[in-house]
Amino acid sequence: METNFCGSGSSSNSEIVRYKRDIPPAHYSFKVESSSLLLDTKAEKIESGGWFSTQINGKDYISLYLAIEETKSLPHRWEVNAELKLFVFDQKENNYLTIQDSHDGGIKRFHEMKTEWGFAKLIPLETFKDICNYGYLYDGCCVFGAEVFVIKPSGKYERVSMVKNPDHGTFTWTLEKFSTMEENTYFSKAFTIG
């Protein structure tokens, strides 16, 4: 089941994908209690351990962002690439509205100049507060979540150098159990071509 809300994502070239799922977020959830009081007092930002921030975008939308904390302890020119999904729990339907940017498969590049990613127009405030049709705000509480799959480059690569039209035949080198090899470099026995 797809839930359609208008709005933009984290960049102008983005297309936001929204769908419902039963499985809770794998990595992080946080519950905001007495959130109706926060909405009534016009709180502009709620932070959870600094990792998450939820905002009311003007009067029209709930915004949700994920931020990397304590970046001052990271080395100069640090970078983290991660697939990011954000969630809002529908307590009435017992499922999760899942939101992901479809641009680049939802992979976001966190770095010194961009420490947070998210959605400025995650869900319309009117929909969020509509307890008759939705369960995002239920019994004064709401639950947000995130899945963050960090992409860690292995640092391994392969290189094959080819000789065009070698003289006097062919040399065949068979590598047994190639996928289980752990060394960075392997050398063949010496051979002569030509």
Characterization of this structure:
The chain has helices spanning about 35-40, 125-130; strands spanning about 15-20, 30, 45-50, 50-55, 60-65, 80-90, 95-100, 105-110, 115-125, 140-150. With about 190 residues, the chain is mainly β. The strands form 2 sheets. Strands 1, 2, 6, 7, 8 and 10 form a 6-stranded antiparallel beta sheet that branches. A hairpin with a 4-residue loop joins strand 6 and strand 7. The chain is elongated, with a radius of gyration of 25 Å.
Short description:
This protein is mainly beta and 194 residues long. The protein has helices at residues 35-40, 125-129; strands at residues 16-21, 28-32, 45-48, 52-57, 61-67, 79-90, 95-101, 107-111, 116-124, 142-151. Helices cover 6% and strands 37% of the residues.
Distance from N terminus to C terminus (CA atoms, Å) equals: 66 Å
Mean pLDDT: 79
* Count of discrete alpha- or pi-helical segments spanning 4 or more residues: 2
Q: How can the largest sheet be summarized? A: 6 strands, antiparallel
Give the H and E element order.
Answer: EEHEEEEEEEHE
Tell me, briefly, the overall form. elongated
Low-confidence stretches: 1-12
Radius of gyration: 25 Å
Please tally the β strands and state the result.
Answer: 10
Estimated share of beta-strand residues: 35-45%
Supply the helix-strand structural class: mainly beta
Helix fraction by DSSP (H/I, runs of at least 4): under 10%
